[in-house]
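Appendix C. Worked example: Protein phosphatase 1, regulatory (Inhibitor) subunit 14Ba
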Amino acid sequence: MAAATSPDAVPQPRVYFQTPAGADDAEVTGQKQGRVTVKYDRKELRKRLNLEEWIVSQLTDLYDCEEEEVPELEIDVDELLDMPSDEDRAIRVKGLLVDCYKPTNDFVSALLEKVRGMQKLSTPQKKGDV
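Step 2, the predicted output written as structure tokens:
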């Protein structure tokens, strides 16, 4: 078993805080260290990842090609969630798939069904922000 401080270990990111002006340097011994973490709802992230993987697999079928050959499409789930109706969402997605020669109605319907009920992913706000 390797030691926790092996030379091959990747150092963890750290945040260093400076001593506030006017503070007594004798109070601080060395630099204070803290870790910064951002928390998201893991369940929602997992749903989003599964949706994105499903979209890629569907696009490879629609365009009848390998994943690397799928045209650059930006199907932004948050943008779709911001739209007021499924009709607007369907128009947006069909507009992105305009160069697809296969029928896209089944894909669009399934996508809208999967998007329904999802939450937008937003950056957590600081306690002082409102």
